């Protein structure tokens, strides 16, 4: 329920708003326009500048936000949008990304890395995993 970087700093309102805007763009425009300057996607207002895999991740999150709080990803109307529910849902997108993408990949990488080194020291793996958390 706390504030975020750029809160109240119009017109872009910080990185939190960039993430939310990317969800708005991926939900409401065709894939071919995600990286193009169009009437629906003004690249000077937080243009999508991450690789396509991340854009699809934004799209997946936008479906969740649209289901629970459509105002937070409404094209144009959601610029500067702020609400407690919107902030909560945005924070859940970060936690879910960590739980379902980042941590499994990190665990897999470390498991494969230590297995390839022939390390039988499970405490090495546990120590490295603890650094991620």
Automatic annotation (TrEMBL):
Localization (cell): Endoplasmic reticulum membrane
Topology of the protein relative to the lipid bilayer: Multi-pass membrane protein
Metabolic or biological pathway: Protein modification; protein glycosylation
Pfam family, one: Alg6_Alg8
Record keywords: Endoplasmic reticulum, Glycosyltransferase, Membrane, Transferase, Transmembrane, Transmembrane helix
GO molecular function: dolichyl pyrophosphate Man9GlcNAc2 alpha-1,3-glucosyltransferase activity
Record has GTP-binding as a keyword: no
Superkingdom: Eukaryota
EC annotation from Swiss-Prot or TrEMBL: 2.4.1.-
Broad class of where this protein is predominantly found: endoplasmic reticulum
GO annotation, cellular component aspect: endoplasmic reticulum membrane
InterPro entries linked to this entry: Glyco_trans_ALG6/ALG8
Statement: the UniProt record of this protein carries the keyword Transmembrane: yes
Residue intervals passing through the bilayer: 92-115
Assigned protein family: Belongs to the ALG6/ALG8 glucosyltransferase family.
PANTHER family membership: DOLICHYL GLYCOSYLTRANSFERASE, DOLICHYL PYROPHOSPHATE MAN9GLCNAC2 ALPHA-1,3-GLUCOSYLTRANSFERASE
Full protein name: Alpha-1,3-glucosyltransferase
Origin species: Coptis chinensis
């Amino acid at each position: 329920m706390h504030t975020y970087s750029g809160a109240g700093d119009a017109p872009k309102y910080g990185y939190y708003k960039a993430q939310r805007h990317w969800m708005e763009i991926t939900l409401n425009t065709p894939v071919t326009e995600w990286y193009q300057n169009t009437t629906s996607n003004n690249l000077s207002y937080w243009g999508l500048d991450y690789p396509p895999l991340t854009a699809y991740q934004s799209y997946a999150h936008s479906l969740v936000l649209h289901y629970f709080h459509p105002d937070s990803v409404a094209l144009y109307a959601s610029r500067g949008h702020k609400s407690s529910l919107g902030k909560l849902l945005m924070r859940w997108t970060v936690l879910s990304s960590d739980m379902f993408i980042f941590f499994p990949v990190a665990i897999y990488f470390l498991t494969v890395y230590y297995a390839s080194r022939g390390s039988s020291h499970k405490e090495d793996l546990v120590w490295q995993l603890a650094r991620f958390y």
